[in-house]
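Priority: medium. Attachment 1 of 2:
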């Protein structure tokens, strides 16, 4: 004997939220959204107005249209800053990623004192950049500093790390990698913690080498976290003012002047607000393009 149970459609509970609840949530979120828009939108709109005016810090000035952007794009100083910003960003992003990946993989192994080692590795990221830059200045700034003195004792010429344009660029990039590796290590370590060990066990059974497991298991598994870290580090590097300004001030002979340092000098030292804000808007546009491109890679990434 078969018993069929039927139930009217109206008897089932409704899964959607009532309209009144949605309106209530909207009213609760509205003050935060309005405040967020005011905090971010007003400075953005005002900066956009300044970029098309020939004014000062206290006066908007006359409308000049796109003249500030034309002057910026035809300035040799701007393109020198673009070149160094690209070098600084590429080295900062991929150097810190490689270092963070290597340390994250090392910390997954059973090494003695792993917890203490991990804590010490976080110090470059935790210590304020003012303290770190002061320490690096003490290490390399003058011929009597420890590293130049060591090079001289070994029979080399005394290197002027912050006075030679090429060495200054290298020093700034290495310093950026040094303070950024712990951030990458934590981000990649969290991604690696989500990888199931049984995948590696199955690969061992199939005879895959450690290098093959790294290429075909580890990297694809952490690909989304990798793209996110690249987006964040790109933004950090392009907008990094204190690292460069505290270490070299943009010198020598503007060798380490990035776009953000050039924008600061243009606005607060040369008092040319329009061109300085135009530089900042060009930086923002480039960051948006890079972020969108990497975000599309995140959506395409799959395991």
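Attachment 2 of 2:
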């Amino acid at each position: 004997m078969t018993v069929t149970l039927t139930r009217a459609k109206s008897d089932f509970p409704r899964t959607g939220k009532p309209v009144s609840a949605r309106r209530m949530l909207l009213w609760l979120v509205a003050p935060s959204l309005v405040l967020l828009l005011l905090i971010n939108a007003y400075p953005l709109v005002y900066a956009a107005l300044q970029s098309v005016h020939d004014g000062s810090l206290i006066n908007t000035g006359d409308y000049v249209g796109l003249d500030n952007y034309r002057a910026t794009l035809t300035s040799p100083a701007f393109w020198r800053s673009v070149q160094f910003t690209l070098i600084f960003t590429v080295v900062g992003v991929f150097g810190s990623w490689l270092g963070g990946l290597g340390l994250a993989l090392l910390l997954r192994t059973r090494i003695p004192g792993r917890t203490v080692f991990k804590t010490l590795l976080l110090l470059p990221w935790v210590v304020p950049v003012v303290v770190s830059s002061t320490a690096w200045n003490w290490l390399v700034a003058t011929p009597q500093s420890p590293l130049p003195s060591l090079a001289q004792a070994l029979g080399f010429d005394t290197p002027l790390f912050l006075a030679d344009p090429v060495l200054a660029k290298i020093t700034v990039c290495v310093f950026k990698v040094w303070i950024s590796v712990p951030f990458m290590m934590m981000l990649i370590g969290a991604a690696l913690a989500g990888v199931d060990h049984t995948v590696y066990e199955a690969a061992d059974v199939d005879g895959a080498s450690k290098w093959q497991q790294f290429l075909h298991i580890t990297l694809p598994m952490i690909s989304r976290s990798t793209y996110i870290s690249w987006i964040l580090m790109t933004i950090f590097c392009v907008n990094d003012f204190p690292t460069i300004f505290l270490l070299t001030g943009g010198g020598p002979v503007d060798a380490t002047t990035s776009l953000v340092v050039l924008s600061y000098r243009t606005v607060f030292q040369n008092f040319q607000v329009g061109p300085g804000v135009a530089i900042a808007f060009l930086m923002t546009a480039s960051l948006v393009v890079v972020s969108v491109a990497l975000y599309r890679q995140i959506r395409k990434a799959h395991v």
